[in-house]
Design brief:
alpha+beta; Alpha-Beta Plaits; 2 domains; 5 strands
Length: 403
């Protein structure tokens, strides 16, 4: 049985695979905000398509174009494709860019040098295979070792790892087969090489598209769930998450504390110093709250912005004393430490309520009770913590009024 593949057919499939990928990505992202990683990936696909087209017309082109220029474009394409993967993972730092670019130059110049000194085709295959493998090492490491990596990202990372292994295997085979390892030498090695190249193209294109879509979905979810200015949960997300927490705590028979707070005389700050300063006050306060929450396990607290300068914290499995102590520590931290970047000092007032979680406890009830405590803190002179100790009949009355 003849397993040999037609060289031009395979190269044409590689060319059209890259071109169709570019067309589909461009059409899909046409109405979206321009994405740097996608633009770099698209350019990489064009360069790779041009390189394979040069190989098709190898007999009609001078070797400097069909070998040196074609492989140069493949190296640059590999560098840009892996750079797009790193950008997508937000790890393409200035240092990473510098080393990535330097290595690309080394690959391109090195290949031109070994061609000019007249080394064999098998040696060039070894150089190109190992050179491309090195481009894959860091993206594969990041995708497979990142603690927060999604299952899709890990899978794509492992598949790229398989690609790296296949490239190394190709280099080893070229060392053993010598002159029989050329892409244009008909044989079983050529067939497997073409299959590997085609699978690499499919994997790279589909993998990047899926990762890009996953990242876009994550960005949309983040925009829908978080307050743009302070980076904490927005009101809707905070309420949903808090209800889930309360239901979970109710099954465990644990306590829950709700803390409502705002900036004292915030309107005066806006009127006197402008809304820009007012926004910076809210951002500074949000950062200080996050620092104070670090003493609790991440799964035991929620922090969100209710609107304006009003924020709320939900503390799981925390009694009244612990909640009041935390609120007082936060108040003191803000009152005693003026930020160097703010032209004005500010303070906050907090209202605290703690109840035993129950399935029929409504979040609106906790909000009303903590708001009453916050109002007491304001009347007492601001810059203080007030604790509301609810009675069962008080909770029932508030819940009935909210229905």
């Amino acid at each position: 049985m003849d397993f040999n593949l037609d060289m031009k057919t395979v190269f044409m499939s590689l060319i059209f695979g890259h071109i169709f990928t570019v067309i589909l990505i461009t059409a899909y992202r046409r109405s979206s905000v321009k994405d740097r990683s996608v633009n770099i990936f698209i350019l990489a696909k064009w360069l790779q398509a041009i390189a394979w087209a040069m190989l098709i017309f190898r007999s009609a082109l001078p070797e400097i174009m069909s070998i040196v220029l074609a492989n140069t474009l493949l190296f640059i394409g590999a560098a840009m494709e892996t750079a797009a993967l790193l950008i997508l993972q937000q790890v393409f730092t200035r240092r990473a860019r510098r080393w990535h670019f330097l290595y690309m130059i080394i690959c391109v110049v090195g290949f031109a040098v070994i061609y000019m000194v007249g080394v064999s085709e098998s040696t060039r295959i070894v150089y190109a295979s190992i050179g491309t493998t090195v481009f894959l090492i860091y993206p594969v490491y990041r995708m497979t070792r990142e603690p927060q990596a999604s299952p899709l990202k890990r899978l794509v990372g492992y598949l790229y790892g398989v690609v790296a292994i296949s490239l190394v295997s190709r280099a080893v085979a070229a060392l053993q087969l010598g002159a029989h390892a050329g892409l244009f030498t008909v044989g079983l090695y050529q067939t497997f090489s073409f299959i590997a190249l085609y699978l690499i193209m499919i994997l790279g294109n589909i993998g990047f598209v899926l990762l890009s879509k996953e990242q876009a979905d994550a960005d949309l979810l983040r925009m829908a769930s978080y307050d743009e200015m302070t980076g904490v949960f927005n009101r809707r997300t905070f309420i949903i998450q808090s209800r889930n927490h309360i239901h979970k705590l109710a099954r465990q028979g644990k306590l829950v504390s709700f803390i409502l707070f705002d900036v004292d005389a915030y309107k005066t700050i806006n009127d006197t110093y402008g809304h820009f300063t007012g926004d910076r006050v809210l951002m500074d306060m949000a950062n200080r709250v996050k620092e104070c929450l670090s003493r609790f396990p991440a799964e035991n607290h929620l922090f969100g912005r209710y609107g304006g300068d009003e924020f709320a914290v939900l503390l799981s499995d925390t009694d009244e004393r612990e909640a009041a102590e935390w609120a007082e520590a936060l108040r003191r931290t803000i009152a005693d430490n003026l930020s160097d970047i703010l032209p004005v000092a500010y303070t906050i007032s907090l209202g605290v309520v703690t109840v035993r979680a129950a399935a029929d406890i409504q979040l609106d009830t906790l909000y009303v009770l903590s708001d009453q405590a916050l109002y007491k803190a304001k009347r007492a002179g601001r810059n203080r913590v007030a604790v509301h100790v609810p009675q069962t009949d008080t909770i029932e009355t508030v819940q009935q009024s909210n229905q």
